[in-house]
Amino acid sequence: MPRSKWNRKRKAEAKLSKSGKDHKDKDAANDAGYKLNQDYSVAKQSNPKMEAYYSLVGLHNTSKRGDGTFQECASDEAKTLERERFMSSLRSILPASFRIDRSLDTRMQHKLIEEMKEFVGKEIEIEIELPKRSEAVGGMKTLLDKSPNSNDETKEEVIKRKIAPAKPIPFLSSNNNDKATKVVLGYQLSVDRRTLRRNPSLTPLHEWMKIHTDCGHLTRQETVSMIPPVVLDAKPGMSVLDMCAAPGSKTCQLVEVVGGMNHHRDDEVNDNGEEGMKYHEPKGYVVANDADPKRAYMLVTQLRRLQSPNVFVTSCDGQYFPILDEKKDKGTVREGMFDRVLCDVPCSGDGTVRKNPGIWRHWNQNGALALHPLQLSIALRGARVTNVGGYLVYSTCSMNPMENESVVAELLRITNGSLVLEDPRPRMEGLVARPGWNSWKVLREHNSKAKKDHKKKNSAKMNAKRKEWQEKRHKAGGGDSKELGDDAAGDKEEEKFERSPYYTLPYVGPETWDEETLRERTTSLGFVEYATYGDVEPEWRRRVRVSCFPPTEAEAKAFELHKCLRCLPHDMDTGGFFVALFKKVKPLSPDATARMHQMARESRGGIEVDAHLNSNGDKKDDTEAASNTGVVKDEGCVVKAEPSEEQTDDEPNVLNETEAQVKEEEDDGDAIQKAPTGRIGINHNKKKKENGDLGNEDFIPLDDSIWPPIIEEFGISSDFPKEQYMARASGEAKVLYFIAKSIKEQIIDRGIQNRVTVINSGLKAFERCSIAESRNKYRISQEAIQFVLPYMTKRVIVACADDFYKCCAKGFMEFGIYSQEFQDKIGELAPGSFVVLLNGQEKDTTKKMFLVMWKRSNALECFVSKVEMDGMVSKLRALGFDAPEPEPAASNTEDAEEEKVDT
Ligand SMILES: C[S@@+](CC[C@H](N)C(=O)[O-])C[C@H]1O[C@@H](n2cnc3c(N)ncnc32)[C@H](O)[C@@H]1O
């Protein structure tokens, strides 16, 4: 079990023993995915409803051929085999994967790839510890608690296997179309992170990964999560919107492509034709949005590593993402604001069950149905803000057609020719993805009230079935499930007989794949199936919408849904994922735009609904909202949109508070109020200010009076782009930010700040400090140094590698440790902020081998973070400088490593 999870488990146990009140806390711990006094691996790895649903809708009807193509399963045996492969993959722990930063210096990239060769292809024997009790257990908590198997199967099994520790992910390669020089940047390990950490044979790989992750050269990211940005095919210089961006792994991938410094080298001549330092600021930019401001701040933490000025982080409900004034092209208005839009929408997340075992417990078909309109509404808005000629990617980590193909089909239906589906497979070398479905079944679950009636009606039949089933299991030697069920239930007498015979422990797959038998199973588990929308009861029509139904034959032919990518866990040993790529070929029609507004009004606000409505549909207070555990989980992107059963009885609640906040956008761009964020009633500005963190105030131009002392102190040249420096407070602001020109002109100057909550943008360029003997009140900041340095004519020193290396340290450094030449140079400086450049790299801003230092009367201090310093030292080594090897990593870095976001 990962250490952080152990810690949480220990805390839950401590709380339990302290309070002595058993049941409530035990349930709380169980809800959080832990089972007190038992190993975590006993987490429920079966859910009868989920398994029966996917069997009926045909998830196991296709299998993979040896050559990576797919075929229909011709026999029941083939389907059974396919289901078993699928289920055993879901029950195994997800292997770790990572990617090398695309915007990294190419020499550094090659060095890392060369080092990776030691771990790819060559097989080594490693011991793999199987989790205690890897057997799957069924979906009922009460049964599980009393399972006779639950206490004794605690033996750890260790097996030996010969494996290559890592394999390349070919579709994640450098931005190079030339096959000869193209390099693979993504790698998937053969083991999960726990095995990687604990297995001595893998220590060299683990150590290597730790060092380079700390230096920001590697990012751990799930293999399937790397797919959407590659499918989006963003290019340097493009404008990109990531509509649902937190926690931000895909945003980072996009920023590395469109805003990475690596693509913009030009250090030969300056504007006057003279040799000198010059940079080309990346033109591309990413607007990263998330409805939940707290998660948007997580995004900022992730992005900080990239230090790119080309990102603008906002928080608003994606359904209301502002449509700013549109660009004029030869006199006519061109629809759209972004070349590429990613809608990685909130979803039920059943594709992430390998890393979020709590999904086994919470899976619920009505949750997927509830998310469908929100997903559609976000995707429609995404389509509206995509430039004509641009691309939109819709993705989920769900396997459910209600969240996938049905959304895609309705999007194509509404946009009526403005969007066309494209098949990204030809560009995705090595990707194994099944075709999207052209048809599917529509099912919902009973709500509690309906379920009771249904149970009453069927109880005799149920009882008979149940007995028959138990006898079968008994004969097959599968344990006395009757005894188990009856003992364990501990429930009211009547409920005991109402349970479906298929609600067993563990759930057993169907023997026959005859559709009627599969249907009988789902019906017995409380599902209702509809052949057409006309069959949907009026009171269910807002949950089971007409758009949930499959396309007609003619539509299916036109839509070509097979072009969508369906990634199943057992095909590439990954999580489950769905991706659709659309090209926008013409503006949306007025009808489509009207539908977009209507959808936003009708659909619920995703996280808002869960966080702010209690089970009666009333607004919760903030405390209650904050403690809503299952809403948006920090470990990933799973949004539990399923309301409680009482809520299901009611119709889905339309969020009137949200609607009231937004002036109806009858005319695009007319709404002047800010789009709603995900948490109503929390004053994030205030909260952030109290924490002393970045406020989310708007960016404003600087007071002119700020500049003269700075210009004088650092000898800033006259072509310095002052208009690109902004603050988040008037007067002598604490921080002066460098904002990318493209963000300034395309986003800020077009008034986005009036329409959304601004979370973050830009890089810190100057920070306020007090220097007694100087008129200047600002020091230089390391974050934006590469953008300030080309204009500095004073307080810049070039150092040899040895002196540069000595500067890379924490604390005060006495002058005497440096070479005489360096000492002479610092001797000429007055106390205060200055910059040290590495000799030979001083004209190359892309490598950023610059250190912001501070001179005191008798010592120097380096104002660079430890992470960045470590990165520089390893860059020094990659560039061939003789820097000492790193010290062995401290043991507590494992904890820190665990806490990092990995989606
Ligand atoms: C699937 S996750 C995104 C994962 C992210 N793309 C990544 O790669 O790290 C979905 C995100 O959508 C956000 N969200 C939920 N409802 C939303 C809405 N109405 N508009 C925008 N974002 C929303 C959630 O807060 C969550 O962070």
From TrEMBL:
Residues 144-585 form the SAM-dependent MTase RsmB/NOP-type domain. One of its GO terms (molecular function) is tRNA binding. GO terms for cellular component: nucleus. The keyword Isomerase does not apply. InterPro entries: MeTrfase_RsmB-F_NOP2_cat (IPR049560), MeTrfase_RsmB-F_NOP2_dom (IPR001678), Pre-PUA_NSUN2 (IPR057285), RCMT (IPR023267), RCMT_NCL1 (IPR023270), RsmB/NOL1/NOP2-like_CS (IPR018314), SAM-dependent_MTases_sf (IPR029063). GO terms for biological process: tRNA methylation. It holds the Pfam family Pre-PUA_NSUN2. It is found in: Nucleus. The active site is at C397. The keyword DNA repair does not apply. S-adenosyl-L-methionine binds at C244, A245, A246, P247, G248, S249, K250, D290, D317, D344. Residues 13-29, 480-495 have a biased composition (Basic and acidic residues). Its main location: nucleus. Residues 1-12 have a biased composition (Basic residues). Residues 1-33, 445-495, 660-692, 882-903 are annotated as: Disordered. Residues 894-903 have a biased composition (Acidic residues). Keywords: Methyltransferase, Nucleus, RNA-binding, S-adenosyl-L-methionine, Transferase, tRNA processing, tRNA-binding. PANTHER family: NCL1 YEAST -RELATED NOL1/NOP2/FMU SUN DOMAIN-CONTAINING, RNA CYTOSINE-C(5)-METHYLTRANSFERASE NSUN2-RELATED. Belongs to the class I-like SAM-binding methyltransferase superfamily. RsmB/NOP family. This is SAM-dependent MTase RsmB/NOP-type domain-containing protein. It comes from Cyclotella atomus.
